[in-house]
Structures are given as structure tokens and as C-alpha cells.
Amino acid sequence: MNQQAAVIWQAGAVARMLDVPPSTLRAWHRRYDLPLSTPQTSSHRRYGRPDVEALLRMKHLIEQGSTTENAAARAFGAGGVIDVVTLLAAVRQLKIDTATALLDAHLAAHDVIETGDRLW
Length: 120
Hints:
Layout: E1 9-10, H1 11-18, H2 22-32, E2 46-47, H3 49-63, H4 68-76, H5 84-92, H6 96-109, H7 112-119
Antiparallel strand pairs: 1-2
Helix pairs in contact: 3-4, 3-6, 5-6
């Protein structure tokens, strides 16, 4: 059986992907009790693919005018649906890490055909 190793990012890397200060991530977790898919074994937050994808959706919703509280509820309750608008924005801005994280997260939860259908 070929299992893909889980990719885990530290808070600083995720903050760079989102283009927000690490303190913003801490504030979001504290205020909105964001659930993380990755087991937390220390005081340092660790983020898996689903977490990064949800945070990207959250940031996109905020940028579109949603309140942070509403964006958190929508992003972390969406269940692994790829946000095509966020993905395309990342590609246009040449944010390759962000685009890769979005695609990897969706591919981890769905097959290639479903991901391709969602994008086309």
C-alpha cells in the first residue's frame, strides 16, 4: 500500500502562505476556537492540508467583506470543498505555495477526477 506522508506546516509557514502576521492566526484561534485536523502535541500549532485550505477560504471570505466570525464558521464547516476563486487568485499572484496547498488539500480528500471536474 502506497501511503502519502502527511504534510504539516508550522504557524509561521502558514502565515506566509496566507500573507498575514502570525499574531493574526493566534487571534483567530483564540477568538473563534478553530478546529485543527492535525493533533496538537505541543504549545506550537501545527497545520495540515485541510487546515490550510480552510484558512485560505476564511481569508478569502474576509477579503470579500464577510465578518471574521462568519468567515471562520463558513470556512471550517465547508468540508473540503476547493475554493476555485481563491485558487485562481493564488495562481494569478504567483503564490505557488498557496495554490499547491489548496490543490493538495482537495486531492487528499477527493480523487483527481473530482478535483479536475471542480476546477473546469
